[in-house]
TrEMBL record:
Keywords: Signal. This is PknH-like extracellular domain-containing protein. It comes from Amycolatopsis plumensis. Residues 1-30 form the signal peptide.
Length: 217
């Protein structure tokens, strides 16, 4: 039987890319790490690099998105269904959401002393391939398929697709695709929603190549 968990509005999935619990727990006596340097807005993809007509951007601060995230734990699948890839605390970053033909695109660029293990996250996503969620008290089925991430030297990559459908309804579900790249305390994540026809792998690599030198890599 599929697991059942609470689910926030879909817009939160697209914009925030928030919190993951796969990283090992830290000892209670550990000294808190100093906050990482701020991520400059220039680290985000320029508008002209997105193959779509220019559109207004809804910009968000990563630390704020993390602080308002739902932290309920259902044994591991909540983070997968919500697309959460960062641990709260000691994180700095910038993100945006924008409309593109066929749907929406968002990007997140973050610095963190505790980067996610994308290999472990992919394994957890495979274990949570099909779950039932409560999206604003409406039962919704979440189906996650993990693919092969783009090749980026010296970095971990993650690529997966999630489809949200209403059980018993003939309408096609909402498709969410995510590509993440992480190395040396830096995470770059792109996510689209809908039928955008974007080459998300290529765009994510371009985002990494754009952000890395602006973050001292």
């Amino acid at each position: 039987m599929a697991a059942r968990i609470r689910f926030p509005p879909v817009a939160i999935l697209i914009a925030a890319a928030a919190v993951v619990s796969i990283s090992p727990a830290k000892p209670a006596t550990a000294v808190p790490a100093p906050p990482p340097p701020a991520v400059p807005p220039a680290a985000l993809l320029p508008t002209e690099t997105i193959p779509a007509p220019p559109a207004a951007r809804d910009v968000f601060d990563v630390a704020t998105a993390l602080s308002t995230s739902d932290r309920r734990d259902d044994g591991g699948c909540t983070d997968v269904v919500h697309g959460r890839l960062l641990s709260p605390g000691g994180v700095s970053g910038q993100g945006f959401q924008t409309a593109v033909p066929g749907g929406q695109l968002s990007e997140l660029v973050a610095r963190t002393p505790h980067p996610p293990d994308l290999t472990a996250w992919a394994a957890q996503a495979r274990r949570c391939a099909r779950v039932t969620v409560d999206d604003q008290d409406l039962p919704t089925e979440s189906t996650t398929t993990v693919g092969t991430g783009p090749a980026v030297p010296g970095a971990q990559t993650l690529s997966y697709q999630q489809v949200l459908t209403l059980p018993g309804r003939p309408e096609p579900g909402l498709r969410l695709r995510t590509v993440a790249i992480a190395a040396d305390g830096v995470l770059v994540l792109l996510r689209d929603a809908g039928a955008t026809d974007l080459d998300l792998d290529t765009l994510a690599v371009a985002a990494w190549q754009h952000a890395a030198p602006r973050l001292g890599r």
